[in-house]
Design brief:
This protein is an alpha/beta fold and 482 residues long. It is 37% helix and 19% strand. Strand 10, helix 7 and strand 11 form a beta-alpha-beta unit. Helix 2 packs parallel to helix 3 and helix 11 packs across helix 12. The structure holds zinc ion. Zinc ion binds next to loops.
Length: 482
């Protein structure tokens, strides 16, 4: 069907889809329809009778699944997409925390957030947590929210400021005023968290920020278990203070002790795992293989597009890879082989959908394709692609075969925001010009040399092993030409 597509206010029905409901039984339906009514899913099942005037979307050969949920993304950094592809965590810290991060202006936060928000809905990520950790003043926070509100996605602003202690900024009247002005009353379209880390400062001054979160009834999200940065000390401060409460999000959670993992599980915490990040930057080995042993619920995130992709197909794939790689690695070390995998494709699809909804306290709202929930839906279908068939194992298809280019239609809160592979009601040109101004400004601030240096960190000395065999002449000639 290549008509103009569904019109605003029209109910939508997906016809003849494979539906990954992600309900409690993980029901998979084939040849099924999904009908929306206003903001909600009205019905799921075969051959649905629909009201007159319903827009029909032929989902034959496609997969309908819940909109994906990213629980930790530094959206402002999308302004510098790909710049830090070769960084380690140290270079990231030096760049954003110690040198150039402070140069970002409110309009640069706006630009980065705007592009990141558009990118999210385009990729079928219908809910994103904007882990916005450089909000030097509430003017920055206003700019961040302006961008989020310009895009028809579901967002959670995780308010943070790495340039001050959390106990300083979270306790100001300006912060409270911002919350009252911009967040309160926005319901499930714009949530709020308080975002800060616990490097183990003596005296636990972060207590004041936890008290603000408790007072507002919002969750705290924190980079925990990051090698050489945050450790069990911070977890113990939280635990002893009584601040490990249900709904707290522990980002990365890669290098904690058994005791800390038990505490997270026992207090109703959630992990946000950014496998591309953990594998590249060095927070610690992506920990789902550990977390599932402790029974810690997992959600997924992309962290930042200054390095990585911003879509959850990559996150699902990377997470399954890392978990299984560790299973094999551990088994081989003891001389055994792995015959059956524990973590399945359907588990990482759950992490990317329902897992995120649970972590954000939105499980009654989104995260599954069930009547009554808000209609945050994704249709994966790309008839012109050789990868679109056969669809035999739909979870496996989503994780290892599909990609963002296969996202055909996206609904957020019942509204069609992408149809037939094209965004609807989104001003990409505006985002492009905002990004161009930001890049122009940042380049001028750096100067050409610094700009280039930031992008190309040094390669450490490394050796190729001496080979006990004599190289063949033609191989030697080829190696010398390298
Ligand atoms: Zn992060």
């Amino acid at each position: 069907m290549t008509t103009a597509g569904p019109q605003p206010g029209q109910p939508v029905v997906f016809r003849n889809a494979t539906v990954l409901t992600m309900d409690d039984s993980r029901t998979v339906l084939t040849g099924a329809d999904v009908l929306t009514d206003g903001e909600r899913i009205a019905a799921v099942g075969p051959n649905l009778a629909v009201p007159e005037g319903t827009a029909e979307i032929d989902a034959t050969g496609g997969i309908v699944m819940p909109g994906m949920i990213d629980t930790h993304r530094h959206m402002w950094q999308t302004a510098m997409r790909g710049y830090g592809a070769d960084w380690t965590l140290t270079q990231y810290f030096v760049y954003y925390y110690l040198t150039w991060g402070k140069k970002f202006r409110p309009e640069d936060y706006y630009a980065g957030n705007l592009l990141s928000a558009i990118e999210a809905i385009d990729a079928g990520v219908t809910t994103s947590v904007d882990w916005s950790h450089g909000l030097q003043t509430t003017e920055y926070a206003d700019a961040a929210v302006d961008a989020l509100e310009a895009v028809p996605g579901r967002f959670v602003l995780a308010y943070g400021n790495i340039h001050q202690g959390a106990w300083e900024w979270a306790t100001t009247p300006e912060f409270r005023d911002f919350y009252d002005r911009r967040i309160q009353g926005k319901g499930d379209m714009l949530g709020f968290q308080i975002a800060f880390d616990l490097p183990g400062v003596e005296g636990f001054p972060e207590k004041a920020a936890f008290d603000v979160a408790r007072d507002l009834g919002v969750a705290v999200t924190t980079h925990a278990g990051v090698f050489n940065v945050t450790s069990d000390v911070g977890i113990n401060q939280m635990y002893d203070g009584g601040y490990m409460v249900p709904g707290t999000i522990y980002v990365h959670a890669a290098t904690l002790s058994a005791d800390s993992y038990h505490k997270i599980a026992a207090t109703g915490g959630f992990a946000s795992i950014s496998t591309e990040s953990e594998c590249n930057a060095g927070q610690g080995y992506s920990p789902t293989w550990k977390l599932r042993r402790y029974g810690i619920p997992v959600s997924l995130s992309m962290d930042t597009s200054v390095w990585w992709s911003g879509d959850l197909f990559s996150a699902m794939r990377a997470t399954l890879n890392a978990d299984r790689a560790m299973e094999h690695f551990e088994a081989h070390a003891s001389g055994a082989g792995v015959t059956n995998h524990i973590l399945r494709a359907e588990d990482v699809v759950d992490y990317a959908t329902r897992g995120g909804a649970k972590a954000l306290g939105l499980d009654s709202v989104v995260g599954s394709v069930e009547a009554g929930k808000k209609a945050d839906l994704v249709l994966i279908k790309n008839d012109n692609s050789p990868v679109s068939f056969p669809v035999l194992q739909p979870y496996g298809h989503v994780v290892f075969q599909a990609g963002r280019g296969d996202v055909h239609t996206v609904l957020v809160n019942g509204k069609v925001v992408k149809y037939d592979h094209k965004l609807v009601g989104v001003d990409l040109d505006h985002a492009k010009s905002a990004i161009e101004s930001t890049i122009e400004y940042l380049k001028a601030e750096h100067g050409p040399e610094e700009w280039d240096k930031g992008m190309h960190p040094e390669i450490p000395e490394h050796e190729t092993l001496a080979n006990p065999y004599t190289y063949r002449e033609d191989v030697s000639a080829w190696k010398e030409s390298e």
